[in-house]
């Protein structure tokens, strides 16, 4: 640390650093209590077949409503949980919750669970997944695991083997946030995925940006040629939906079809949209 010459200036920087560090420590401490205090919940967001407008999948998304700090976004606490290793316990809990609920849904609806790199690389992953499926009686083909390119960038040994073992269980693997990482295309040659999820940054300006349109169109065709399914994330407008449907996109996910919802609300949504999602016809 710098000597205390010009003390005030340093104190200014120190205290703002302290504030960030304090919040981080607080989050870390509170997170370890959160699961048991039931302030962590899992919400579900529908993925809808773009042609039939049927709900085909739901993504499990963590929510944390802290008694005094309020809602803390997964974008803030997941990276902390990854660093500290708390993601192990939390991630296992999310997976079991997802399987437990999905088994009550119609057979054609899958559930998707996000896996952090650390979870993916842990030796306990396979028994965890097998256990969660078996204990809840969920057939493997109804589970999707979402991984990101950051995992593949780790170049850790065993990634390929773990992906293969998971596939052999019969579940699907989706590559999340596709297009935002580095050298995505080489990963497609190296690893076998069942689904590509096009990142929402390409979807948000689909109507106004011809380049985004060209990229999305190409990715959809690429996925089809490589026999992968394809989903678009963050679909918010009717115009985006229409373009994606015309391009032959398989599934859409976003506020247009439905927000992430607590499980009771999601199951009510399923009942109300059992044939197809009505608001997508408006
Ligand atoms: P993700 O897996 O890419 O999830 C999609 C994110 O987009 C979610 O943010 C979702 O709420 C948001 N979203 C969905 N539709 C729309 C839309 O139409 N417009 C906009 N603007 N946003 C939309 P969320 O829930 O804040 O989660 C952020 C990220 O945190 C996730 O990104 C995922 O990487 C991570 N995450 C969430 N839950 C878990 C979990 O259980 N385990 C792990 N490892 N990561 C998780
Ligand atoms: Mg995801
Ligand atoms: Mg994503
Ligand atoms: Mg994303």
UniProtKB/TrEMBL annotation:
EAL domain ranges (all copies): 24-274
Listed name of the protein: Diguanylate cyclase/phosphodiesterase
Organism for this UniProt entry: Agrobacterium albertimagni AOL15
Residues shown, of full length: 510 to 791 of 791
